[in-house]
Structures are given as structure tokens and as C-alpha cells.
Amino acid sequence: MDLARTEVAKEPPGPAEAAPRRRSRRGGAARLGLMALPVAFFGVFFAYPVAAIVVRGLKTEGRGGGWQFGRIAEVLGDSGIRHVLWFTTWQALVSTALTLLIALPGAYVFARFDFRGKDVLRAVVTVPFVLPTVVVGTAFLALVGRGGLLDELGGVRLDTTVWAILLAHVFFNYAVVVRTVGGLWAQLDPRQEEAARMLGASLLGAWRKVTLPALGPAVAAAALMVFLFTFTSFGVVQILGGPTFSTLEVEIYRQTSEIFDLTTAAVLTLVQFAAVGMILAVHAWTVRRRETALRLVDASLTARRPRGAGQWALLAGVLATVVVLILLPLGVLVERSLDAPGFGYYKALTSDDSGIFLVAPIEAIGNSLTYACAATAIAVLVGGLAAAALTLRTRPRGDGKTPVTDHLVRGFDALLMLPLGVSAVTVGFGFLIALDEPPLDLRSSWILVPLAQALVGVPFVVRTMLPVLRAVDERLREAAAVLGASPWRVWREVDLPLVRRALLIAAGFAFAVSLGEFGATVFIARADNPTLPVAVARLLGRPGDLNYGQAMALSTILMVVCAVALLVLERLRADRTGEF
Amino acid sequence: MLLRIEGATVRFDGRPVLDGVDLGVAEHEIVCVLGPSGSGKSTLLRAVAGLQPLDAGRVSLDGHDQSGVPAHKRGVGLMFQDHQLFPQRDVAGNVAFGPRMHGAAKDERASRVRELLELVGLPGAARRRVGELSGGEQQRVALARALAPRPRLLMLDEPLGQLDRSLRERLVVELRQLFAELGTTVLAVTHDQGEAFALADRVVVMRDGRIAQSGTPLEVWQRPADEFVARFLGFDNVVDATVTGQAADTPWGKVPVPEGSAQGPGALLVRPAGVRLVDAADGLRCTVAARTFRGTHVSVHLQPEGAPRLEAACALRDAPDPGDQVGVAFDAAEILVLGGDPAA
User: B128 vs A251, A343, B118, B123, B141, CA distance in Å?
Assistant: First the structure.
């Protein structure tokens, strides 16, 4: 999400915004046409399964059974559930505060300082974000868990405390803050602060009066995203939480797959849905505020080498944080995976006699890649159409009223973000119970996994594509139309060449996200076709050094695949020339 | 009439941007719409191009009503203010775009590109990236691109707006020659009166979405229709006056007016050339407030007591210094009684 959001900040103001963007009345119809496939996709593969599982949970068995709304109060009154709700909320709040505290100096350093290796470092801090949550959990287990590095060195174990979870959340979300806030910070015109100082403001005063208000909405947006991710945290808590700590998402999983209490699961799903809806509404509001006119300049113009002891100390502090917080867990993960002589854990991955899977664990790599490719294709198609639909704007009517399609489209925009917040576990289980009868009997089809993964990929595709599509000057399209290009030719000749790179970046994100998807996949991946995260989780669930070592080895492989995907993305991003 | 606009009205949020505009452009005619920013002139072009639907009225080309005809089927060309060249294509790719959309064969396109780049004075630029072109070169490429599909009507939105002065003066002459040679029908809009007068067969002055005056450059220059047009053309010596016979009562005292001027209250324009400096004892007493060197003459700002400032044009060696006391006499030949009500 972070990278997608920085793009919003990059949307250039100026002629594109100032020019009247008016389309003929036919724009409304074209837009509804483009929305058809995404809406159908979300209806069938998101709304329907989620609704089905909620209905099943809240209705009594048999035909004509009544709604059991009384159960809602009953579930919410349960002290164990209340404990989960309370823990989910406060750990998310503390994680968010900690992340801001640790990452904001990083955002400043990345935005305003120029130092050697900055680009590489920027990629490094982003790696955790595209890492599967299972890998993050595993890495911290290797660092602070039983037999972990700290345990060996000083007998310190944090996996029984909440600190392991909090640190893993900071690790995971560091990049969200650095990229969202830093991306905007780097583009704020320093001359605005200089102007304030010329008018008599002190250094601190200028920062407080000029920079802080400009950054405020970006900080709020980043904080909300971090809160959202930590509120719905699953993989990390599943691995590091043990029996003591459980978030809503983990509890939904437990109730569904271990206790088979669908009613409780359904109520919890609704609770999470309501909470996430609220978070997203606040988020949309801050984004709208952020898009108000800010003076933005090219980021490369605002950074300079640190000067004076204070600035060097700040840089050193941020670098030390990155090393301890990000490089150390990843390093320990790799180190643990190599703990057996002669790559023993990696070799063990190729044998299928462990009894955990029907196949050798190594085959999970092939499965994961296949699924992720299919999911990427689906996400790019659906998300691309959705972004195109959201870009078309209808002409303001002569009477100043908003056309009906505009309201529809705004609702559609919000709908696209929902999969980020609805319990992935619910979606996965919903797939199993809703898509099992004709005409949509996909239970035994391999496409089920990519479909579920694509759901999470679509919001990323939309958020990456939208700012770029919106930044295409409407008059460029008009120039093509006046030269004789039909609307379809305009899209092919003007939009597509300009957004090709954004499309690739979006595809990369969808790929990384699909690769790491765990909550839904754990339900629907078949036993003989596990994905990498599912295989890691299963290995960790078994006792013994060999299983532990294999989990580390598989996690390392997954990390490398994700990191390579990310580096390719960063390269694409750096290649950008001209406007884009 | 090749183009006929009747009662064209466009409203944004209830506010009229075009307000019942009637305008015709004959074949091979060059018409220039002149007006300050916000007067609706760009919207007029967009309406003709089919990029802006009309709320009322209609646009006809060759006698055919264009309502419901989308932009890409109207066969008109539009050169945008900031050119809007396609950044991802080279010069040839930009020029060939129109013919390609109209299904021209490859070799036909190539020869058309060569021909047009020759015409606009950029032979051999075909493979250059548009990002590396100078402002003037971009303008030429945009023109070649607009001409390439042989539009029946070429529209130019502030064609020379972003170029520097000397280049603008040269290009406006080139453009006029080029359009005469090609017999192109042109509808251009600009806020620069010099550009309009140099380019157009006919000038149309717009104000607040309405047409304030239409005529040849000479007519408009010599007889501005009202105070707005006069002030827009740069005349500042405009005052309320009451005309009786061959004289007018003004804040500057009695001023002679030409024979046959409209009688009664109205607005009076005194061209700077009509303000003659005489001995301080004769005529209207003024203090010289400022003087500006204009190249061929000196513009002198005069402050009479208790009356609006006057601008006078003086020969270089006759110009008084700021602070001098002078007298002013008026020349009836350079005075005009304006029609319409004075602008607020």
C-alpha cells in the first residue's frame, strides 16, 4: 500500500488539474461498461462468499431458519472474545505509535539527505513490506524466539511477550511510513520554509507552521494504513502470538477451522468489517485533504548532504535502526536456514518422506509461482479496468448537480479497497462453502487460489494505476480525438503507452502480494498443492529441528523471490523519464 | 459559410461561459477571436471541435448540424495552446498521427510527413524527440500535426502565446503567408491584439461569453464599438462625455468631436496622437506625471487638476520631463464618440 500511496502524492498539479476536464455525456455509459467486469468479479468472488458465510453463521440450521441476532450480543458479551477485541485494538494502536516514532526520522532522512547507497537502502527497507507475513513471523521467531539468536546470546526470549509482535509490526510497516510520508516530504518545496523564515519565523517555527501542516495528512494516512494492517494482522500473530495473544483475524481462523463455531466467526467477521469500514472512511477523508494544492517539486532537488554533527548523528541513528530492525531479522533467518551442514535444510526440502505434505516441500515454490502469475493476470485485468473506469470523469452539468454515475463510481472506489480489510480467512472459508455448487463449482479447481489472491492484489493495482492515469493530461486525449482517433484508439494510442510502466509496477505488486497471501490461501490450497507461506506455516507447526530448519529455508527462498521482484520494480521506477 | 455558430451557449455550474454566440466563417477566411482570459474564447473552439457539448444553440459545418457528431468525426483541426504533442512519439510520429487515424497507407503517411515538415520549416526533424524541441519548433510541429489530416477548418488556440516576442512577430507573418498559400480556413483565438490584427481577415472581440465587436482589423482599430473594446485595445483616454453639436463636455473641459458624432451622453475616446502639447498658458493645464520611451515615440502621462489622467504621444525630441507644466489641446480627427454604455 505504501508505494501505491506515494504515487498519490506525486500526482502533479498544474495544467492537468487546471484545465477543464469535460467529457461528453456518453462518458457515463462508457464508464459503467468498464465497471461491469470488476463489479461482477467482486460480486461473485468477494461479496457473495463473504455474505454466504456470514449468513450461514447467523442463521439457524434448516430451511426457513430464523436469524440469530441474539447471538451477536452473546458473542460480544463473552469475556474471551472481549479480551481478543481489546488486544486487537491496543496492539494496533501501540504498533502504529511505535512505527511512527521509529520511522518518521527515517522518512526525514530519506527525504532530505543525500548519501551514498540511498537507493539500495530504500529498496532494503521496502523488502519487509512485500514479505509474506509468515516470513516476517518466522524471521522474528528466529531472532527472539526459543533457541533464537537472543536466546543463545543472552537467554532473552520475547516470543512469550507482546514485544515480539510489536517489533514485527514495526519491521513490517517501517516502509509504509518512510515511503508515504518521505515521498511527500521530498517533494515539498523547501523554499516555502525559506519564505516563512524570511518573514521572520524561527527554524522550528517555520517547520511547525509550514512543513507540518503540509505533512499532516500524509502522516495521518500512513498511520491509518499501519493501523489497518496491524488491526487485521494474521500471519505474524499466528506465528508469534502463541496461545496468549490473538487478534480478531486469528480468532476468526481459530473459530472457523479449529472450533467450527461459525456463528462466532460470522459475528467477528462483521465486527472487523465495521471497524475496517470506519478506518477506510477516515483514510479516504485524509487522502482527499492531502490532494489539495501543495507546491510540489522534483524530489531530486530537495535532498542534500547532511551538514553538522546533529545531521550526521541523525543519519547514523536511522542507519543503525535499519540494521537492527530490518537487516538483523532477515540475516538471522538466512543464518538459521543454513544451520545444518551442507545446506541440509534446503536438501531436505526436496524429499517427500516427511509426512507433512503429500509432495516434497520444494514443489511449493512451483505452485506459488504458478498461482501468483495467474492471480497477477486476473488482478491486472480487473484492476486495470476499474482504474480506467475511475479515470473517466463526466462533465459537470450545466445546473451544477453531480451526475448519478459519479456517486456510483465513488461507491465503487470504496468497494475496491474493502478486500484489504475484510478478514482473508473469511474470504477463504467463504470460497469453500459458497463456490461449491454448479454453475460455480470451483472447489476442486486450481483457479480458486489465484482468484482469492487476486482479490487482495486488485486494490494495489488500482492505487498504482489511478494516479498515473489521472495525471495523463485530458487535453492530450482531446488532441488525439480531434486528429480523428475514436475513444478506443485514444486509449490505445495515448493512455496505454503512458501507463505501460505503471502497469508493470502494479503487476509486480500484485505478484508480490499474491505470493505472500496466507489467510485465504491456507483454507483453499489443497494438501497436495501447498503454496510457500502455507508450507512454511505447516512446517512451523511441527516439532523438531528439521522441520524448523526447513521452515527457515523455505522462508529464505520466499524472501529472495520477493526481494528480486521488488528490485525489478525499483529498477522500473528509477528508469522513469519525463513526466512519469 | 463553412462554419456557422448559432446561439451557442455553454454554462459551467449555471454560469454562462458562452452566451448566445453567433459567428460565421467563410471558406478561406481567417477569423481571429480576440478577448481577455475568461471571455469564453477557448470554450468556443472546444464547442466547434466537439470537445464541449453546447447547452443551447448549434454548430454547423458545410451546412450540416454537428450536434451528436463526436470530435473524431468532425474533420476539424485544433492546435492546442501548449501544443499537447504526444510525448512518447517522435516528430514524425506526431505529424503522422492524424493520417494514421484516417487509415492512410504507410508510404502516403511518410510523404505527407516530409511535405508538412518542409512546409513548416523543419525538414529533417522527423526522428527528433518532441521533448528536445524548442518552443518555436514545438509550435511548428503542432501546426504540421494539425494540418496533416487536411482538416476543412483549422482552429488555433493562442497559437503563439508561449513564444518570445521576436519569434512571435516572425511566425505570425509566416503563418499568414502559409494559410494564404494553402487556402486554409482558420478560426484562431488570442488575447494579443497585435497577433490578431496581423493574422486575421476579420477580428471578433469577445467579452464575458458574448461578441462585443466584429470587423476587419482596420475597422476595429479605428472604430472600437464601446469603451470595453477601446480599453482592451489599449486606449486609456476614455471618459464620460455629453456631446452637443461639434463639441463634448468632459472632465477635461470642452473637447471638439468630429462632424456627425452621436449626440447626447456617451463615452469619448481620445487617441494619444490627438492630445497635443501646447504652451502651459494655453489649453488645459497639466503636470507631467511620467514618461515612457516607446521606440518610435514617447508616451507621456499627464495629470490635469481634478480630472482623469491623459496619455499623449510625443515625438522624441519634443517630450517634456516629469514635473513640467504643460498645456493640452485636442485634435478632433483623433477623437471618437463610442457607442454603447460605458463599462462599469
Answer: 62, 55, 15, 11, 11
